[in-house]
């Protein structure tokens, strides 16, 4: 399957700091999605990106669809304790049928 | 609550037993996906349906796994003769044909 690499694997930050994480692929994707998952729950959709170069915000979250269509970035501004969780990127493959997920970035926010 | 529900939320079974999970997608979504997720990993695609047709299956889906969506609404995933390696979170997601996916809360399977 297509491989998505997320970095960093984990982050420990102080409340109020900004966070950046990214996702890269060896293949081109037509859609990028960012999810947040909390323990024992399913992933919750945060942001969807449909076009290369697109920059989309959802509250304190901003995500970008890379120009090469092989990467995407997620930024969280002014982090708060409830931002804690694992953030996954997902890309829609060439067939338009299957989503491929990254290995996740675990975020810990220290009050 | 995304509107996708899964049942049960947790299942503990003994090795060799059969288990069945159910997923109820968002009603207007014609696509339904099953994923498996193990600790520290992202969800891995297992199979998907468009309406009642199962259109794609991963190589991860061994002969012991079968999925159905008989009326194009809810779906079931059955695992026969469970093995300890089947222990994982089983996630269901639904979407319209070319839209984003919304996940259910998952079914956590533990095989003893």
Instruction: Indicate the radius of gyration of chain B in whole angstroms.
Output: 13 Å
End-to-end distance of chain A: 39 Å
Number of helices of chain B: 0
**Helical stretch count of chain A?**
0
Low-pLDDT runs of chain B: none
Q: Got a strand count of chain B?
A: 11
Q: Mean of the pLDDT scores of chain B?
A: 93
Dominant shape of chain B:
globular
Q: How are helices and strands ordered from N to C of chain A?
A: EEEEEEEEEEE
Q: Cα distance, first to last residue of chain B?
A: 30 Å
Oligomer: heterodimer
Biggest interchain interface, per-side counts: A-B, 23 and 26 residues
**Classification by helices and strands of chain B:** mainly beta
Kindly report the average pLDDT value of chain A. 93
What characterizes the major β-sheet of chain A? 6 strands, mixed
Q: How many runs of DSSP E, i.e. beta strands of chain A?
A: 11
User: Level of helix content of chain A?
Assistant: under 10%
Helix-strand pattern of chain B, N to C? EEEEEEEEEEE
Shape of chain A: globular
Calculate Rg of chain A over CA atoms.
13 Å
Poorly predicted runs of chain A are none
Explain this structure.
The complex is a heterodimer of chains A (111) and B (112). The relative contact order of chain A is 0.34. Chain A has no helices and eleven strands. Chain A has strands at residues 4-7, 10-14, 19-25, 31-37, 44-49, 55-58, 61-65, 71-76, 85-92, 99-101, 105-110. Chain A is mainly beta and 111 residues long. Chain B is mostly beta strands and 112 residues long. Chain B has strands at 5-7, 10-13, 19-24, 31-37, 44-50, 53-57, 65-68, 75-79, 88-95, 102-103, 107-111. In chain B, the strands form two sheets. In chain B, strands 2, 4, 5, 6, 9, 10 and 11 form a seven-stranded mixed β-sheet that branches. In chain B, a hairpin with a 6-residue loop joins strand 9 and strand 10 (102-103). At the A-B interface, strand 4, strand 5 and strand 10 of A face strand 5 and strand 10 of B.
